[in-house]
Automatic annotation (TrEMBL), chains A, B:
Lineage of origin: Bacteria, Bacillati, Bacillota, Bacilli, Lactobacillales
Protein's name according to its UniProt entry: Phosphate acyltransferase
Subunit structure: Homodimer. Probably interacts with PlsY.
Family: Belongs to the PlsX family.
Organism domain of life: Bacteria
Gene3D superfamilies from the UniProt entry: Isopropylmalate Dehydrogenase
NCBIfam families: plsX
Reactions catalysed, as given in the entry: a fatty acyl-[ACP] + phosphate = an acyl phosphate + holo-[ACP]
Length: 348, 348
């Protein structure tokens, strides 16, 4: 049985959309148990069938306006803190929320805790690759957990992203690239130049060099490594531009008279396909990778289908042992370092 | 008479496309003289009419493969170096090239030189605003001149961008925003938090706070201030996503049988409008602002229409005295500082 702790109170459509998604997922995935944290009375009003769904009362709610770190420290009885604590205590395998992003990250970091060897967990998300028969998506990391990153953080994102792409997207020896301001090896600011050097020396990743943001959607890499500030800006640029373009297409249909409307009708299926191809909530939410268990944050605007996709994603993360895989990688790195220290002592 | 020094040898379609564009511009703008730098024999082969076009032989060419700073130092007889030198010597009012970007920037920095008070010139470009009846474009700066930026550089981009937007886009009291990882005042990494504080204290700009890249194309600001690394990534994300979306629309037309093709035909005008709306070469090239004269870099893929647009842009920059305006601003700032130092000495 996979046990997932869920913040029922997070997101613009909570708790209804969360509960609806959880009930749909429960009906789809027979080996999964759901721990639903939130105001018991409200949850019970909406819950149709309690089969494999356990409701745990959480008196407090962390709102979007709360200062994240302080809220996680003070609101001990909030749905986010209680769900994260269940993971820490081994009562659940993973935790997810559509609520206050900062609070979800803080709860992950301070309550669930980091894998030994990871300095800064980062947020990973899958994004679509378009017009490429050989690849349908890629992952990018960090998309915004850390506003200031050191080269070693980017190196760790590369390892974490490799595990994620291998196990979640069945990418064999995933191509890892550094998002940079040019494709040549010597490009970048200080942090990215140093990160490039580190990535070249990193064991067990398939580093292919620098890529530019212009080429991401074409499938130039499976794992795109970036600092959280740039990654956040790039992700939001892609989102905003795609939305603007879809809006322009809509205008072309509606503002060009009868012929435009007829054209739009004839192309309706094609346009719907574009919309669904660009909708990356199909891959679930953003995962804070580098923690001792999967912690997933979905868009505040998530509705039931995104909740179902996120639960599917979490089940796969648990089934493919991503966290134990990363933990073993870093334990091994440390053992190798120790061995090489021992050896150099012997040789003295 | 406006005199423009032009690198005839830069860009994928040089010298033909450059010469063709210059001849078209010459026919359009009667008060403009063109100094065309490059291999005289080659230029003369393509030049139809020498009216107001002076050809100056440049034996060397800086290629796309040349290391920029070294090439500018060594290739004294290259079209880029000679054109920039003409500006320095007062023989021309401005300089532009579609060649090696780094070399154009280096020639601007080392030959044309900085305005007193500006630490790091930055690259500015105009980008489209879509689906907004009140605004058709905005400017973003720095889009990649400096990979590492300090808060004071971002502050100077805000001033430079304000002058550019006021005089090139007739924006009254242009809204200046900082591109950040959230809209709240306390968002950002260290550099952006410090830049926010500086922008709040900057005289004579209309700072409206932080914006996210997701909202740029909607027209949330007239001047978007960003460090060159992030700005470069965002610009290329917008470009890449727009291109991918247009590709998907094309696929929708061609891969959905007869009805799709008919739909495409009916929407042809609408699609062409989208394409031309997203094509920001209509605004000319990217300007390295902060130099003692306009230095403009256009895409390597520029053809004659972009050359014409860039010449239009340069003429307007010269006519609206952007460079003298910025120079006066910083001279005034320094005079104020001196006055306040004098006053504090008096009070002692």
């Amino acid at each position: 049985m996979v046990k997932i702790a869920i913040d029922a109170m997070g997101g613009d459509y909570a708790p209804e959309a969360v509960i609806e998604g959880v009930e749909q997922a429960r009906d789809l995935f027979e080996d999964t148990v759901f721990l639903l944290y939130g105001k018991r009375d409200v949850i019970n009003q909406h819950l149709k069938n309690r089969d494999r769904i356990q409701v745990i009362n959480a008196d407090e709610v962390i709102t979007m306006e709360d200062e994240p770190v302080r809220a996680v420290r003070r609101k001990k009885n909030s749905s986010i803190v209680m769900a994260a604590t269940a993971v820490k205590d081994g009562e659940a395998d993973a935790f997810f929320s559509a609520g206050n992003s900062g609070a979800v990250l803080a709860a992950g970091l301070f309550i669930v805790g980091r894998i030994k060897g990871i300095d800064r967990p980062g947020l990973v998300t899958a994004l679509p690759v378009v017009r490429n028969a050989n690849q349908s998506n890629f992952v990018m990391m960090d998309i915004g957990a850390n506003a200031d990153s050191k080269p070693v953080n980017l190196q760790q994102y590369a390892v974490l992203g490799t595990y994620y792409a291998e196990r979640m997207m069945q990418a064999k020896s995933p191509r890892v690239a550094l998002l940079n301001n040019g494709t040549e090896d010597d490009k970048g600011n200080k942090v990215h130049k140093a990160a490039f050097e580190l990535l070249q020396q990193t064991a067990d990743i398939n580093f292919i060099g620098n890529v530019e943001s212009r080429d991401l959607l074409n499938g130039v890499a499976d794992v795109v490594v970036t600092d959280g500030f740039t990654g956040n800006a790039v992700l939001k640029s892609i989102e905003g531009t795609a939305r603007s373009m879809l809006g322009l297409v809509k205008d072309a249909v509606y503002n060009t008279g009868v012929s435009g409307k007829l054209g739009g009708l004839l192309l309706k299926n094609g346009f719907n396909q574009i919309r669904s191809q660009m909708d990356y909530s199909q891959y679930g939410g953003a995962v804070l990778l580098g923690l001792k268990a999967p912690v997933v944050k979905t868009h505040g605007s998530s509705k039931a289908p995104t909740v179902v996709n996120t639960i599917r994603q979490i089940r796969q993360m648990v089934a493919t042992d991503i966290v134990p895989g990363v933990a073993a990688y870093y334990a091994n790195q440390q053992a190798n370092q120790q061995a090489s220290v021992d050896k150099s002592v012997e040789n003295d």
